Amino acid sequence: MVWWDDPDDAFCEDPFDPEGDYGALQVGKQPMNRYVICYDIVDDKRRLKVAKCLDSYGSRVQFSVFEVLVSKPLMTRMVRELGALINAKTDRISIYPQCATCDARRTDLGATVEKPVHEPWIIV
What is the pLDDT of residues 85-109, one digit of tens each? Predict the structure, then answer.
């Protein structure tokens, strides 16, 4: 079992959070956490597919770096989709959780990109 699938794993634990909610944003009933995802994909076609997949979950902040704001179930789905797109022998995707405390202390220099904020969808 991996960390994003473990039901007993606290989601984005932050030991400095006195409230104990670990700084997760709440959208509806789902806690949302931010991740920085970077990749090194050898093949151009696979790289484009990975970029399109990540673009559907978040915002590109560099050529091979995305920020996503997702719930735990969406994180699981995204990781499975990405895993199916890459060649594990030659490609690499790194996913870095970013707690709310760390995100609040973030510094951007130069041209910046808006932090992704996903509003809940209401389908009628």
Answer: 999 999 999 999 988 778 778 787 7
57 touches 20 (CB < 8 A) = no
Q: Tell whether residue 21 is among the known ligand binding residues.
A: no
Domains, the chain, with CATH or none: 29-104 (3.30.70.240)
DSSP-derived pairing of the beta strands 25-27 and 30-40: antiparallel
For residue 103, give the DSSP letter. H
Does residue 69 contact residue 118 with C-beta atoms inside 8 Å? Answer: yes
CA–CA separation, 101 and 123 (whole Å): 33
Whole-number Å distance between alpha carbons of 15 and 9: 14
Distance CA 73, CA 37 (A): 17
